[in-house]
């Protein structure tokens, strides 16, 4: 049995003692209440006297160029719109918002004690913020003045700012600002922007069904997005309509009719971006780099610092647009990166992003003869020299024991030199026979290993055709691999983002630089590839646009045209072709060179600098290209090549020897004297 309560008569304490205790308890309670009242009053007076913080505008996720200029916003909702007065919003939207977010908004103060205590209990149990108890005023304070991080400190600041808001502004002003700035998903801040985004109409035109759907979004913009999760959005709309019935705003019949009404969601158009292919690539890279979701980018307060050079980007776009034939379906891609760091300075993935957002700078195509740079780089590491000669003629190679292990190599147009070529001539002419002979002589595996070492990660097979670039790569990948030749032998990682700032901190792209070839080899390849831009070289069409030296290599397949080249400041890869794989005409196969030349000419003027200096241990030797031996004064078409110590030719050219000067014939008098004596 429970113990009964004691009456005063039954109490063991004397009556005087009991009265003294009661007085002390009453005084203590009064003092505590008074202190709390005074403290609360002082806080409220202080909040009333302090001005509100300057209103912070919403901060959508932004891309900035290398020099800090904004180039794109993640938000597809477009530019910020002028705030609407409360009376301009449809009644349905106002009532749906109140019923869903804060039914007692006009009766309660800034903070709902009951909701806050419930949320605190849940959050303490989990050790982090997992549930909110925010009123409309608190949500407005968060959107106007605070970041989106979920911490106890931020919740406390939110509560103080909510109290301050209601001490300074009337309820109608708070509700109006809420409807103009709250986040509705996909970068849409405020109901006017959300109405245009989801329904393609002004917010004033929303009906009950549409208003109920919008009002349900702030609780979970990504979770209930009608663009991504229409079924969840409809379920959330039902919850909003039922709350409107419960609060007396609408009848059950009106709620049922609104729920049954078909929703006409506007087609989600991607935003028009500056440098759209680059911007899309940068957004995706930033998400991987900082572990962000689309929802994080949608919520804003993210600043992505990119590597883009706006002047070079415009030059790249202009070079492509001015070269490709008007009205043609021919496409092109261009990638320009800093060889020292891998930072992408310009990128174009096609001629029109609105027509086709596919980024061809990341598409795989056969590189053709641009792959020969890796064949010859591998050969120079295995004892070949620039003086090595191979006969340029129609050749059938036998590379295995089977009768089927034969490979006949054709040069472009079946035009051959008909004589031995040096490595410089083979690169300038893009001779296929020389390339396949080199691969078979040094071994296909060594070629593949060399290419992978420089950054080519695509799967390759040890076929004789490997030397002719039959295994697809991307323009970005090819440009990054050539960077090792341009920077003195280092592999770099191509990237579009330098750093990402979020409310939680900064993530910086690490500089990854690994030596993969010697500076001597890098210089030898650079010097040899200058011949491509010389008279008779396959890239000579780009030469008129240039203002300074450059190294390059062209490549052509039936369906792809390439040119990749560089200076000490920039590596540029250009691809031209059809998405369908349609064969190129003769004229179309020569369009990569003028695109490359137009862009590189602008880049040289924009990024001037000295040309390469040969490493001190390389020996410059003048040789005759017909014989590969040391040139004599009689050799008319001599070339200067660079050799490692002990590898240069020692014999003089046997084809152009100095003339033998005969001894003077003895005079008749001398002969007479000899006979006389």
TrEMBL record:
NCBIfam families hit by this protein: PBP_1a_fam
TM region positions: 21-47
Recorded family membership: In the N-terminal section; belongs to the glycosyltransferase 51 family.
Keyword field contains Transmembrane: yes
Highest taxon of the lineage: Bacteria
Protein name, as recorded: Penicillin-binding protein, 1A family
GO cellular component, one term: outer membrane-bounded periplasmic space
Domain Penicillin-binding protein transpeptidase: 333-600
GO biological process, one term: cell wall organization
Enzymatic reactions: Preferential cleavage: (Ac)2-L-Lys-D-Ala-|-D-Ala. Also transpeptidation of peptidyl-alanyl moieties that are N-acyl substituents of D-alanine; [GlcNAc-(1->4)-Mur2Ac(oyl-L-Ala-gamma-D-Glu-L-Lys-D-Ala-D-Ala)](n)-di-trans,octa-cis-undecaprenyl diphosphate + beta-D-GlcNAc-(1->4)-Mur2Ac(oyl-L-Ala-gamma-D-Glu-L-Lys-D-Ala-D-Ala)-di-trans,octa-cis-undecaprenyl diphosphate = [GlcNAc-(1->4)-Mur2Ac(oyl-L-Ala-gamma-D-Glu-L-Lys-D-Ala-D-Ala)](n+1)-di-trans,octa-cis-undecaprenyl diphosphate + di-trans,octa-cis-undecaprenyl diphosphate + H(+)
Naturally occurring in which organism (per UniProt): Alicyclobacillus acidocaldarius subsp. acidocaldarius (strain ATCC 27009 / DSM 446 / BCRC 14685 / JCM 5260 / KCTC 1825 / NBRC 15652 / NCIMB 11725 / NRRL B-14509 / 104-IA) (Bacillus acidocaldarius)
GO molecular function: penicillin binding; peptidoglycan glycosyltransferase activity; serine-type D-Ala-D-Ala carboxypeptidase activity
Classification via Pfam families: Transgly (PF00912), Transpeptidase (PF00905)
UniProt keyword annotations, A-Z: Carboxypeptidase, Cell shape, Cell wall biogenesis/degradation, Glycosyltransferase, Hydrolase, Membrane, Multifunctional enzyme, Peptidoglycan synthesis, Protease, Transferase, Transmembrane, Transmembrane helix
Classification via InterPro entries: Beta-lactam/transpept-like, Glyco_trans_51, Glycosyltr_51/Transpeptidase, Lysozyme-like_dom_sf, PBP_transglycosylase, PCN-bd_Tpept
Domain Glycosyl transferase family: 77-244
């Amino acid at each position: 049995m429970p113990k009964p309560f004691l009456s005063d008569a039954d109490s063991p304490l004397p009556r005087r003692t009991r009265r003294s205790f009661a007085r002390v308890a009453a005084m203590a309670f009064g003092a505590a209440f008074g202190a709390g009242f005074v403290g609360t009053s002082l806080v409220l007076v202080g909040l009333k006297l302090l001005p509100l913080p300057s209103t912070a505008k919403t901060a959508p996720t932004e891309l900035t160029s290398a020099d800090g200029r904004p180039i794109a916003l993640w938000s597809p909702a477009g530019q910020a719109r002028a705030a609407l007065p409360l009376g301009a919003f449809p009644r349905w939207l106002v009532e749906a918002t109140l019923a869903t977010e804060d039914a007692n908004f006009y009766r309660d103060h800034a903070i709902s004690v009951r909701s806050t205590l419930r949320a605190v209990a849940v959050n303490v149990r989990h050790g982090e913020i997992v549930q909110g108890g925010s009123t409309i005023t608190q949500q407005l304070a968060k959107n106007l003045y605070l970041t989106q991080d979920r911490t106890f400190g931020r919740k406390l600041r939110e509560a103080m700012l909510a109290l301050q808001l209601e001490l300074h502004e009337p309820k109608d002003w708070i509700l109006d600002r809420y409807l103009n700035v709250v986040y509705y998903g996909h970068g849409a801040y405020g109901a006017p922007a959300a109405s245009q985004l989801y329904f393609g109409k002004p917010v004033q035109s929303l009906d009950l069904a549409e208003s109920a759907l919008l009002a349900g979004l702030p609780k979970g913009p990504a979770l209930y997005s009608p663009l991504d999760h229409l079924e969840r959005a409809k379920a959330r709309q039902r919850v909003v309509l039922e709350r409107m019935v419960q609060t007396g705003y609408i009848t059950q019949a009106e709620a049922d009719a609104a729920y049954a009404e078909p929703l006409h969601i506007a087609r989600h158009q991607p935003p028009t971006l500056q440098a759209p292919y680059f911007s899309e690539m940068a957004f995706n890279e930033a998400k991987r780099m900082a572990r962000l979701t689309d929802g994080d980018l949608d919520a804003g307060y993210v600043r992505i610092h990119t590597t883009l050079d706006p002047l070079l980007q415009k030059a790249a776009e202009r070079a492509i647009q001015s070269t490709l034939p008007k009205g043609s379906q021919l496409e092109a891609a261009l990638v320009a990166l800093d060889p020292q760091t891998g930072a992408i300075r310009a990128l174009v993935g096609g001629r029109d992003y609105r027509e086709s957002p596919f980024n061809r700078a990341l598409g795989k195509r056969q590189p053709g003869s641009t792959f020969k740079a890796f064949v010859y780089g591998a050969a120079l590491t295995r004892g070949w020299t620039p003086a090595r000669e191979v006969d340029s003629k129609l050749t059938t190679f036998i590379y295995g024991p089977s009768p089927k292990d034969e490979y006949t190599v054709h040069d472009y147009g079946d035009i051959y030199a008909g004589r031995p070529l040096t490595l410089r001539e083979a690169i300038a002419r893009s001779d296929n026979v020389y390339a396949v002979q080199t691969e078979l002589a040094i071994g296909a595996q060594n070629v593949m290993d060399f290419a992978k070492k420089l950054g080519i990660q695509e799967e390759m097979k040890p076929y004789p055709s490997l030397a002719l670039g039959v295994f697809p790569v991307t323009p970005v990948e090819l440009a990054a691999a050539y960077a090792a030749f341009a920077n003195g032998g280092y592999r770099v990682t191509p990237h579009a983002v330098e750093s990402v700032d979020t409310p939680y901190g900064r993530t910086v792209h690490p500089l990854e630089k690994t030596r993969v070839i010697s500076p001597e080899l890098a210089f030898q390849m650079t010097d040899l590839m200058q011949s491509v831009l010389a008279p008779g070289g396959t890239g000579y069409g780009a030469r008129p646009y240039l203002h300074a030296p450059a190294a390059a290599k062209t490549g052509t397949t039936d369906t792809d045209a390439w040119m990749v080249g560089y200076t000490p400041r920039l590596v540029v890869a250009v691809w031209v072709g059809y998405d369908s794989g349609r064969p190129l005409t003769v004229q179309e196969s020569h369009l990569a060179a003028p695109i490359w030349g137009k862009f590189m000419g602008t880049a040289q003027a924009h990024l001037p600098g000295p040309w390469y200096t040969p490493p001190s241990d390389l020996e410059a030797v003048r040789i005759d290209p017909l014989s590969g031996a040391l040139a004599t004064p009689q050799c008319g078409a001599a070339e200067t090549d660079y050799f490692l110590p002990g590898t240069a030719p020692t014999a003089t050219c046997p084809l152009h020897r100095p003339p033998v000067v005969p001894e003077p014939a003895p005079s008749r008098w001398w002969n007479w004297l000899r006979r006389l004596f």
